[in-house]
């Protein structure tokens, strides 16, 4: 069983930056692909970014490409999401999860290929 804990959320002005962390316990993450998703009020949970187990391959939603960077430190069993040039539309609860199924790049974008979700961390971007 894997437990994931997200942290680093908060209130920031538009144009600012935040760095989210996703720390795992119970199992090493070094063999797993990982993803970040977000859910805004009244909206479905949506894909943000994903990273392969090695860190060599990353995927991004079009809305965050060029502003967000996903990375990982397998020695620390932690995945990060650096968020720059934040926009009010980025306001949401951000979740990390372990990708446990699916083959091919398309699978990274869909939440049903992920398990072991964290509790989420709130990101609020003010104008």
Question: What report would you give on this structure?
Answer:
The protein is mostly beta strands. The protein has strands at 3-7, 10-13, 18-25, 33-39, 46-51, 58-60, 68-73, 78-83, 92-99, 114-115, 121-126. The strands form two sheets. Strands 2, 4, 5, 6, 9, 10 and 11 form a seven-stranded mixed beta sheet that branches. A four-stranded antiparallel beta sheet has the order 1-3-8-7, with no helix packed on it. Strand 5 (46-51) and strand 6 form a beta hairpin. The chain is globular and about 40 Å long. The termini are far apart. The mean pLDDT is 95.
Biggest pleated sheet: 7 strands, mixed
Structural class: mainly beta
What's the total count of β strands? 11
- Point out poorly predicted stretches: none
Q: Proportion of β residues?
A: over 45%
- Radius of gyration, whole Å: 13 Å
Shape verdict? globular
Proportion in helices: under 10%
Number of helices: 0
Mean pLDDT: 95
Based on the model shown, name its key terms.
127 residues; mainly beta; seven-stranded mixed beta sheet; four-stranded antiparallel beta sheet; 0% helix; globular
Helix/strand layout:
Blueprint: E1 3-7, E2 10-13, E3 18-25, E4 33-39, E5 46-51, E6 58-60, E7 68-73, E8 78-83, E9 92-99, E10 114-115, E11 121-126
Parallel strand pairs: 2-11
Antiparallel strand pairs: 1-3, 3-8, 4-5, 4-9, 5-6, 7-8, 9-10, 9-11
